[in-house]
Design brief:
Blueprint (H helix, E strand, L loop, with lengths): L4 E4 L15 H14 L3 E5 L5 H11 L7 E7 L11 H8 L4 E7 L2 H7 L4 H17 L3 E7 L1 H7 L1 H13 L4 E6 L6 H19 L7 E5 L6 H10 L4 E4 L13 H11 L13 H11 L17 E2 L2 H9 L17 E2 L7 H11 L10 H13 L8 H11 L8 E10 L7 E10 L2 E9 L2 H14 L9 E9 L10 E8 L4 E8 L2 H20 L14
Parallel strand pairs: 1-2, 1-8, 2-3, 3-4, 4-5, 5-6, 6-7, 7-8, 9-10
Antiparallel strand pairs: 11-12, 12-13, 14-15, 15-16
Helix pairs in contact: 1-2, 1-11, 5-7, 6-7, 8-9, 12-13, 13-14, 15-17, 16-17
């Protein structure tokens, strides 16, 4: 089967998504990661639209990309002027990229009602713009905007716009489902019609290279892109994590594994697939967007198992409940703990965490019973792996705390015209050493977190690599009103991993302390034996 070219538009179309913005330097770092993955094309932005994109192209000129071609994006010339006089096209040329991408209108609705243009002038704009870019030695990707909507209403004209671009020398004709409203069967029918039409019009004069660009407004972006590839499209456009305007673009973190692992359609080097999860996380962190746990292939939950029957089966044969090996994508199998868990879940998790389950006479049946009881009281271990590991170690008498709480005090002060302020004082012991510190925070939990960090920092300096990334409070049962138990979930991360911890109490501060303490204990135990063991003097060795 013919290989597929991957065209990434995270840095342009992806930034049109709500709350997503990258600096020029961040865009360059993402581009370098995409290049490392073997992506063929990276659309860097619209050079005529803003200074940031111009700066990116300036930065990109100084870098050496080994796999990818950088593309500058823009539109066809304006009506009534020459392509050589169009400021947008001149900015594209000045960006000095080997590849250019321009969009033109395929739908008479836009040509006549939105642009107040004529159909004939629109065709001339497409042809002139493509010819101008080709005359300047650029590879041209022509994006037929709103192609599928135009094809539904006026197929003859939509096809004419493609012919205009193709005849002018476009290297790729990309069919765009700009509104994201097309169904897979419509994509399939239209793509096949385009292939027949162009072959009829141009014969074997030049190889016809089609591309597909889909949006996710009906949840069909990935499916539509895949079916177009199955109908002859050799270029698939999309974004990492599906970021983009409205409901987003086709998600390349799904498309690439599907093409490569499911359809035997090579798209990036096979050995690079194991970097998919890392790339997904890198882009989400750079965008400051919380990763979607349920994202197919690369999400934290993509290969997570909760039911005891499922876990028992995958311990014997993983493909019984998994469609592929998660490690191929840099992901991992996760077994979740809950009141649905059985002995298989506990045994699998203990092995995964390196906990000797049968130490000190303990057994998985006893632990399962304890888990079910604790979940009945409000705990939820399927979302708190960090606390679960600590609980296993405590049950089997293997837990070695890296610090102990002596006491803490939290006060909140409210002045009439000022927001609340919080202060925390904490006393901890590390071995034979004691530490008392105080700190302020934006709230009581923030103050407690800052005070604990300050106290532990005198013994474990590596804590500066750890940060809290999410904090959730849930009422376990609201029928008790203000006396109800609350469940606090804390998600923390360092440069290597993300972990979650939990606390449950009728007092929100107590529950928060449990989750915070577990989070720090987990981090320190992970580092134990490396750089965070305290010295005999009480300071870090």
């Amino acid at each position: 089967m013919e290989s597929i070219l991957i065209y990434d538009t995270t840095l342009r179309d992806g930034t049109q998504g709500e709350n997503i913005s990258f600096t020029a330097d961040e865009k360059l770092k993402i581009a370098m990661r995409l290049d490392e993955m073997g992506i063929h094309y990276i659309e860097g932005g619209w050079p005529g639209s803003n200074p940031r994109d111009m700066r990116f192209f300036d930065l990109a000129k100084r870098e050496r990309f080994t796999s990818a071609r950088i593309a500058a994006f823009g539109s066809t010339r304006k009506p009534g002027i020459k392509a050589a006089d169009d400021s947008n096209l001149k900015a594209i040329i000045e960006s000095d990229t080997p590849t250019t991408a321009i969009f033109g209108k395929s739908w008479p609705l836009h040509v006549l009602s939105i642009m107040d243009n004529t159909l004939a002038e629109n065709l001339a704009m497409i042809a002139d713009s493509v010819a101008f870019l080709k005359a300047n030695g650029r590879e041209v990707v022509y994006d037929a905007e709103h192609f599928f909507d135009g094809f539904k209403e006026t197929p003859e004209y939509a096809l004419e716009t493609l012919a205009a671009a193709f005849n002018a020398g476009a290297d790729f004709l990309v069919l765009c489902d700009t509104n994201g409203g097309s169904m897979p069967q419509e994509i399939e029918s239209a793509t096949r019609s385009v292939t027949r039409y162009l072959k009829t019009q141009f014969g074997e004069q030049r190889q016809i290279k089609l591309g597909i660009h889909t949006h996710n407004d009906c949840g069909m972006a990935v499916a539509n892109a895949i079916i177009a590839a199955n109908c002859g499209a050799v270029m698939v456009q999309g974004t990492i994590n599906g970021y983009g305007e409205r409901c987003g673009n086709a998600d390349l973190t799904s498309i690439i594994p599907i093409l490569s692992a499911k359809m035997n359609r090579p798209c990036i080097p096979e050995e690079k697939l194991c970097g998919m999860k890392s790339l997904s996380r890198y882009v989400s962190e750079t965008a400051n967007i919380v990763p979607l746990n349920t994202r197919p292939f690369v999400g934290r939950c993509a290969f997570a198992h909760k039911g005891g029957i499922h876990v028992s089966a995958i311990m014997k044969e993983s493909r019984a409940y998994e469609h592929m090996d998660p490690e191929l994508l840099g992901n991992q199998r996760r077994v979740l703990m809950s009141d649905l868990a059985g002995k298989s879940n506990v045994e699998y998790k203990a092995k995964e965490m390196g906990v000797d389950l049968h130490a000190n006479g303990c057994d998985s049946k006893t632990i399962v019973a304890a888990i079910k009881q604790m979940e009945d009281e409000g705990y939820q271990f399927d979302v708190a792996d960090g606390s679960f590991q600590i609980m296993l170690e405590k049950f089997t008498e293997q837990f070695k705390p890296l610090f102990d709480l002596e006491s803490f005090r939290v006060t909140i002060e409210k002045d009439k015209d000022l927001p609340c302020s919080a202060h925390a004082t904490i006393k901890i012991s590390v071995g034979d050493n004691h530490e008392i510190t105080a700190a302020e925070g934006l709230g009581p939990v923030s103050a407690l977190d800052n005070a604990l960090r300050k106290a532990l920092g005198n013994f474990y300096p590596d804590l500066d690599t750890m940060k809290l990334v999410d904090f959730k409070v849930r009422v376990v049962d609201g029928r008790d009103g203000t006396e109800a138990k609350v469940r606090v979930l804390v998600e923390s991360r360092d440069q290597d991993q993300i972990w979650s911890t939990i606390g449950v109490s009728e007092d929100i501060i107590e529950a928060s302390w449990q989750a915070l303490a577990d989070s720090f204990q987990y981090k320190l135990s992970k580092e134990a034996g490396q750089t965070c063991q305290p010295s005999k003097s009480g300071k870090a060795a």
